């Protein structure tokens, strides 16, 4: 990244943070939102597109359901490692470097998925591709949030996360065209298609700046000043005027928050003092919501074929309609996230998801099944825009991405366990209805956790 010139004397850290928080979001903020949003788009596209591909492969390779559960969960094992490691490394070495590395790992391994000839080989490459995806998904929300003022942070991060819906819809459109006509070769083509757009995103992200909050936490004040001034100019604000205003409203300079201890010291801080309650709440919330979400989304195309008698093409089209239903879920979250307290908005969304899962479990017609699945997708995906934002707000800059990564990693444990459990349960004769009633119990747990242990963060400046 090209070094940016500093036009005036370096301000103290309080001044810089106030200027960052007072700056009205403009073109550079929107550019970062699109960069991050496209990352989520391709993450969702790969997850959904390859779920379609693997669902077809399960049928044509005659893979037992118990084995299929492990295969569908392979990416989440990688997600777990990628989320945890990327969080720790990003708090130590920077957000930007890790985001670029994550995309490289994903591209390389995704291409290798298409060369697989056995189930174990496919499992390994899918898991390693998940390492890159897990790192990428973990880093985007905290990175974007560190550039935004408190008054609009929720709305901007929610908009960024809503790009996930585009990926699901794109996958739903392409799956019937690429995979369904010739699944024996279509799934390999799908692996290549999933990787190629990320190469373009990787090239575009070369100009992405490092987070000023991260730089300040490492004592790199001059670099943070240059980036903040560049944002001010692009937002058509005079940096010198803002600096003078900030200096009249701040007190003595703060000390830079350089992380002490070894590389994994931030992980121990997640369980120190009052932060332990936050970490417990987030880990339980992420486990329940991510487990329910991926238990539903990874198995729906397969269960429609094996338990409901749908053809592969019909199941793909059904799932496409469900994917489109995510859009209003994200849109409503964007409207409400800066108007309602985050914890109550999460609880409301999950309550809606719980009711929708009950409709899916008890439906006796394809129409009711479609309505229930569409509502479930809207609530489960819409709430992600809120709890991603919420998680990034609850930790200080020095451990923000570590906290986000650890919560995401625990969520991936839910995403691993749930599809595997569904595979074994389905193989043992447990019905479609009973499986979705199990998801209802997970969602009810999430409501209780956030209501009892959740903190208020709306409008609060990042620490």
Description:
- Helix 13 (275-306) packs antiparallel against helix 17 (366-394).
- The chain has 19 helices and no strands.
- It has helices spanning 13-22, 27-60, 65-93, 95-113, 119-145, 150-161, 164-178, 183-204, 212-217, 221-234, 239-247, 265-269, 275-306, 312-324, 326-336, 342-362, 366-394, 400-427, 432-453.
- With 463 residues, it is an all-alpha fold.
- It is globular and about 65 Å long.
- 77% of the residues lie in helices and 0% in strands.
- The protein has one domain: Up-down Bundle (Growth Hormone, Chain: A).
* CATH architecture assignment name: Up-down Bundle
Task: Specify the overall morphology.
Answer: globular
Question: What is the helix/strand order?
Answer: HHHHHHHHHHHHHHHHHHH
Question: Helix proportion of residues, in percent?
Answer: over 70%
Describe the structure concisely for a colleague.
By secondary structure, the chain is mainly α. The protein is built from 19 helices and no strands.
Provide the descriptors you would attach to this structure in a database record:
0% strand; mainly alpha; Growth Hormone, Chain: A; globular; 463 residues
